Amino acid sequence: MPRYAFRSNKPKVKEGDVLKLPPPAEPPARTSRRIGMHTSASGGVPNAAERAYRLGCNTFQMFSSSPRQWAQAVVQPAQCGEIQRLREKYDLHPLVIHTNYLVNLASQNEAFLKQSIEAFRGEIERALQVKADYLVLHPGSFRGADREQGLLRTSAAIAASSTGLDLVAGGLTILIENTAGAEFSLGASFDQVAEVLDRLRGLVPIGACIDTCHTHVAGYDIVSDKGFRQTLAELDATVGLKNVRVWHCNDAKAARGSKLDRHQHVGKGTIGLEPFRRLLNHPKLKHCAFIAETPIDEPGDDRRNVETLKSLVTS
Ligand SMILES: [Zn+2]
Ligand SMILES: [Zn+2]
To answer: Does domain 12-311 have CATH number 3.30.1300.10?
Structure first.
């Protein structure tokens, strides 16, 4: 099970919920890019949209259910209408949903796989209900098998989870996220992400979400200018830059190649500001959403990370 540094083991009281502060007097300044944050849906999914707006975002990511429980939330029709109303009012596009962390579609345990498929089907159903654009999924853990079997199983399980659901009509695309490459985790290389995409093309709308922290700790060089260009060229040759729809913009606490997934504030970690500047201004990535999943150590850290990303946009 991968560990996630954002919004974990931090006392809630320190977050300084932006909903408890007065709303901004004027709409926050925008850039030419879609930049946002993973925001809390506490109190109902419309609150995630309101929080995103108040943090200065024009896109956002949220969970549609508790990220560490199997019990699935029910999204009320009134909440679906309200989140759409807020997204239109504030121009919040796209809406990205991150899948529950318990789901492992590569599991070799039949009962666990069945539970994962049911949970992922629930994720797709809720994403369609709230009219999300993207549903991000980690490809899973292949413990007990080999990597190739794991990739086959994940691809088959994604197809099985979506049987009978019309993602095309709902405007929903599933995004496979690259991972940090801890033991048995699939998706640490762009090749593996591309393999899942290739197997699902034509079955469900599919693309990729690339996380800067995961890319860096998995061993890719995005820090040096030359390394960044080579890494992007490799991403283009495998996944295809046009298939990358979301970038998770997280700096890293751990070293390149360490496989340790610990997110850090943008510009404050082992990646530094420059690679984020290159990403945000890359001419072939204009179509992407750039979303931070950075820790909240002090009240306002969420707003500061969004502001940092926005300040790097030059075009
Ligand atoms: Zn991570
Ligand atoms: Zn991520």
So the answer is: no
Cα 213 to ligand 1 centroid, rounded to whole Å: 7
> Distance (Å, rounded) from C-alpha 173 to C-alpha 165?
12
Dist. CA 107 → ligand 2 center (Å)? 20
Q: Which amino acid is at 279?
A: L
pLDDT by residue (tens digit) across 156-170? Answer: 999 999 999 999 999
Distance between CA atoms of residues 250 and 262, nearest Å: 9
Per-chain residues with Cβ under 5 A from ion ligand 2? 211, 248
* Token digits of residue 145: 């098998």
φ/ψ of 93, rounded to 5, equals: -140, 140
Domain boundaries, the chain: 12-311
**Amino acid identity at 149:** Q
Residue 1 has pLDDT above 50, yes or no: no
pTM of the model: 0.94
